[in-house]
Amino acid sequence: MTIRRYGNRSDWKRILTRNYREMNMQNREFEGVISFLEMHEVTHPLDVNYPHQNIRIADNGYSWLQHFPLDKNHAVTTMFDESGHVIQTYIDICLQNGVDENGPWWDDLYLDVIVFPTGEVLLQDEDELEEALANGTISENDYRLAWKEVSLIREALAENTFSLLRLAQQHRQLLLSISKD
């Protein structure tokens, strides 16, 4: 069974003061749910160590924009610093995503594609996917689905057709303009 994760991060105790908003969007560029989490005050920053760099992804004033595209097997989190600059785009491969009484969610399929502002792309957590298959947490079909989705995303990134990279700033501004909580 996969782990269900929610866009509102309500269980994340690191965030002391927050604003959260979400909206449905249906147009020719995107169909699904978009959420926006502003971290006004956190207990302590969150830094992530990658092979070639360390990146701060959560701190006072940081924000996360999430896209939950309809009928896709990924959820996209674009992380912004306190000045509104993109830090990274984190693409979670998922079995499915949806919305319930707690807001938008995704059922995590372990693999992650990370896109840095430089254009560098990093694939992460292949070992977790392999382990989930080996111990029966996911099926062979789920395993193949995860790798197929990674392939589709890499292809779209290479062809510069993964539109959510281009739309992130626009959607951030849209959600900033609607009333808070």
TrEMBL record:
InterPro entries named in the record: DUF402, FomD-like_sf
The UniProt entry, under PANTHER family, shows: DUF402 DOMAIN-CONTAINING PROTEIN
* Name under which the protein is recorded: DUF402 domain-containing protein
Q: Where is the DUF402 domain?
A: 65-161
Entries under Pfam families matching the protein: DUF402
* UniProt superkingdom: Bacteria
